[in-house]
Amino acid sequence: MPDTSQMPANTEFLALTDQCVMCGLCLPHCPTYRLEKHEAESPRGRIAMARLVASGQLAPSASTIAHLDHCLGCLACEVVCPSGVRYEQILVHSRALLEPSRPASLRRWRWLHDPARLRFLARIGRPLQAFRWAPWLGRLLPGTSRLGRILREMPRPPENLPAPKPRQASMPPRGSLTLFAGCLGHVLDRDTLDAARSLLAALGYRVIEPAGSPCCGALALHAGDAEDAARQTHHTRGVLETSPADAVLVIASGCLRSLRDHTMQGSTLRVEDVLAFLAADDQFASLGFRPLPRRVAVMVPCSQIANGAGSAPIKSLLSRIPQLEVQLMPEQPRCCGAAGNYFIENPNQADRLRGEKLDQLDALKADLVLTSNIGCRIFLDNGLRHQGRNIPVLHPLTLLARQLEP
Fold it and tell me: Distance between CA atoms of 96 and 229, rounded to whole angstroms?
């Protein structure tokens, strides 16, 4: 994650863009290029446009802004690039560079990057969804309306399945860990938080949770709002560094990269993915799990792949549940289309990408879907609901905690 405290000057930024040799090896991995077959919708096309704007050879336009905004930020291109191009840093700087040129109609939706407002929206959305009012209200608004899209894609209440019971430590105390829920975790991902607490307590860890739901800053950063991102991450770093914990565990893969590579960059406090942490814990094998004769489809989010963890921790943890059949969804086509608030800003592209993932799920005939990113989870769950399919979509931790033996 690039450091927004000192965005690169134009000469440094141009040097970053010059790292791209336009080889095109990233093209098959780019979701938007695969959909549109348009050079401006490819990583190298976006880099070329960013270079021209930064050097003054191309004036910012609605078309330029649209092509850069269509990027999901999945970083599939960065993962496969043989030249090591730092695409994320180029994308973030490009959007910040174009921010003053955005029309007022786009800038007024910047509140979607504000954690407090997002929490408020999520809180009022839950009862609307529970009483089935949200989709009905959404259909009353134009199809291109962002508010209508938000209402139609409100997360539905969690499945009526037994919640994991609070656990007492089954072994001597082993240290303290900060559980980072992100700005929306306590509103939208409470079942995952309950599961993480249960599993960590069973392993003997004391769990600390920071007050105020601090934000990793990724939404603002990827939207080009460097000032808000810097403010959010400065606050979050202060909160985490004053916590008496040995490490920070992150439940949402989308927050991990931002925290590890940006917010906590240079800090002595370890930041780890909770799944990778549990998979590496030598005491995890001592926990017992009830059998579950079901087939689960695991979608590894783009952020999990970009973070370098991939599917290994998830497969290792799920292998502890007897009789569970684990099917990994194909990585290609990449990205389900959620991508932060991308599914609100670019509904047509997002729905096409989600449709591909839903087709994969249909082929796998799974009883459950597991994914470690809250945005992917909500977006896939709504896609299944729109199709009339009642397949629960959970974080892997939730399934593990439900099968944990007393």
Answer: 11
**For residue 119, what are the domain limits?**
109-152
Q: What is the pLDDT of residues 6-23, one digit of tens each?
A: 455 688 899 999 999 999
What are phi and psi for residue 271, nearest 5 degrees? -120, 120
3-state secondary structure 309-328: CCCHHHHHHHCCCCCCEEEE
Residue position matching structure tokens 């289309």 = 337
The pairing of strands 295-298 and 270-273 is unpaired
Residues 292 and 385 in one domain: yes
Residue 169 bridge partners (DSSP)? none
What would the pLDDT profile of 309-330 be if each residue is shown by its tens digit? 789 999 999 999 999 999 999 8
CATH of the domain at 254: 3.40.50.1860
Contact assessment for residue 395 and residue 181, using Cβ atoms and an 8 Å cutoff: no
Instruction: Give domain status of residue 336, yes or no.
Output: yes
Indicate if 395 and 292 belong to the same structural domain: yes
Residue 130's H or E segment, with its range, is helix 115-130
Is 70 exceeded by the pLDDT of residue 126? no
* Residue matched to tokens 């590496």: 280
| Residue 226 three-state SS | helix
Residue 74's CATH number: 1.10.1060.10
Residues 113 and 77 in one domain: no
Q: How far is CA 80 from CA 21, 270, 312, in A?
A: 14, 27, 18
The whole-angstrom separation of Cα 32 and Cα 66 is 12
How many structural domains does the chain have?
Answer: 4
Element (H, E) at 179: strand 176-180
Backbone φ, ψ for residue 289 (5° rounding): -130, 140
Q: Could you give the CA distance from residue 302 to residue 390 in angstroms, rounded to a whole number?
A: 24
- Tell me, yes or no, whether 348 lies in a domain: yes
For residues 14 and 119, membership in a common domain is answered with no
Same domain, 219 and 194: yes
* Torsion sign, CA atoms 53, 57, 61, 66: negative
SS3 164: coil
pLDDT band at 213 (very low <50, low <70, confident <90, very high): confident
Strands of 368-370's sheet in order across = 325-328, 295-298, 368-370, 393-394
